[in-house]
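Example: C17orf113 probable zinc finger domain-containing protein.
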Amino acid sequence: MKRTLFQFSFTTNRQCDNENEDNVNGDSESESDSNQTDGPSRSKKTKVKKTFQTSWLAKWPWLRKDEKGMKCKVCLDHKKANTFTGSSGCDNYRTSTLKRHVESSDHKDSLRAEALQKD
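Written out as structure tokens, the predicted fold is:
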């Protein structure tokens, strides 16, 4: 069967597999197989919805979760104004967000004030 250049460039995997039937282990690839990608293109980024992890409550004892987001009990107790004390709390469910909050001056000041109250 005579094929046009257009038809030749669009070979299917089935045709390639038939040509390579002798290769049971799949050790060799046809040229058209090596140019194909597995899965979606890497240039398109899919947005993954992050969720609250209950294991974080053990790691960060000051952390509280309500229906709107995460809150910091220590910062709330000391009336600090930050993302973790707002009415909706923080909904950026990432460990990097929690680590950044731990390093914030509001949180550090609240921890110091908490320690002074206990003494």
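The chain is about 40% helix and 5% strand.
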